[in-house]
Design goal:
This protein has eleven helices and twelve strands. Helices cover about 45% and strands about 20% of the residues. It starts with 5 loop residues before the first helix and ends in a 7-residue tail after the last helix. It folds into three domains: about 60 residues, Arc Repressor Mutant, subunit A, CATH 1.10.10; about 110 residues, 3-Layer(aba) Sandwich (D-Maltodextrin-Binding Protein, domain 2); about 90 residues, Periplasmic binding protein-like II (D-Maltodextrin-Binding Protein, domain 2, 3-Layer(aba) Sandwich). Belongs to the LysR transcriptional regulatory family.
């Protein structure tokens, strides 16, 4: 499975910030060919050209400008948390190693990390981002203390201890300017006539949307842009006439400020839960962290689960 990773976005950010692939390769201490491959992989996953080369260096395409703006926002939010952590911790502090799969609400997650270190200066936090496979393997190898992801079921959950933070629902969303925004009861044919931005075909939300068309015997969805990075897909949906589907917590702020609207098409689904995953009983660090996550998610995103 290939992913649009946080590392890929930050590599693209460095190329733009430094003005050329050559300068970015030197700054990141990697080969120019390696950096070029990373950029090409990112463009392939996003479904569009991000930069063009000129004698003066690189120039952003219109699509690249959109992606860069939101890559910059992601870098700023993660950087804010990391800077605060470094400022308020010392080498003697207790270390909490957190693995993150980007399905949790980014702002609320970053604020939870900041709140943890602010309230407990005796704690030190190390963040690691990656795919579900990478994070769960690191947890099994004792390289992480806790992972933020969907809660697991069946054989996948064997030997793991999980705390549910929220029960989640998937829905279809679009810009308020989309033709279906005011439709009180859109049909599958209406959905088929629209273009979409969704994740890869092996991602659960994409499979859910594909099942709608399969059950109706209608070809679809017509995916114009395939991107797995939720903040980018959310930004594309806001600034286009594409439909997309998200867990509702990922678009709560955009719904509140009117940048996105929910399309009134009911999806048959089993609710998924987002939460934390660990091995063995809580430590003081993990228990405190989970408690703060629940408080911040409830306050900022408006959902939570007691217990």
């Amino acid at each position: 499975m290939h992913w649009v990773t946080l590392n890929g976005l930050m590599t693209f950010h460095s190329i733009v910030e430094l003005g050329s692939i050559n300068r970015a390769a030197h700054a990141l201490n990697v080969s120019q060919s390696s950096l070029t491959r990373t950029l090409q992989h990112l463009e392939a996953r996003l479904g569009g050209t991000l930069v063009t080369r000129s004698p003066k260096g690189i120039e952003l395409t219109a699509f690249g400008e959109l992606v860069f703006a939101h890559a910059n926002d992601i870098k700023r939010q993660v950087g804010r948390a990391e800077t605060f952590i470094k400022t308020h911790q010392d080498a003697s502090a207790q270390l909490l190693r957190v693995g993150v799969v980007m399905v949790h609400p980014l702002m609320a997650f970053c604020d939870s990390i900041v709140s943890l270190v602010e309230k407990h200066p005796e704690f030190r936090v190390e963040l690691r981002f990656g795919s579900a496979t990478e994070m769960l393997q690191a947890l099994q190898q004792d390289a992480l203390d806790i992972v933020l992801y969907y809660t697991l079921m069946g054989t996948e959950a064997e030997g793991l201890v999980q705390d549910v933070l929220a029960d989640e629902e998937v829905a279809i969303f679009a810009s308020p300017l989309h033709p279906l925004a005011e439709n009180p009861a859109p049909s599958v044919e209406d959905l088929a006539s629209a273009r979409w931005t969704l994740g890869p075909t092996d991602v659960s939300i994409t499979r859910l949307i594909a099942a709608v068309f399969e059950e109706s015997g209608i070809p679809g969805p017509d995916i114009a842009i395939e991107v797995d990075m939720i903040p980018l897909r959310r930004a594309i949906t806001q600034n286009s006439r594409f439909l997309s589907a998200f867990q509702t917590h990922h678009v709560s702020p955009e719904l509140a400020n009117g940048k996105l609207v929910r399309i009134r098409f009911p999806l048959k689904q089993e609710r998924r839960s987002i939460g934390t995953i660990r091995i063995g009983p809580h430590t003081r660090l993990t228990r405190t962290f989970v408690s703060i996550l629940k408080d911040v998610y409830q306050r900022e995103v408006g959902f939570g689960r007691s217990g």
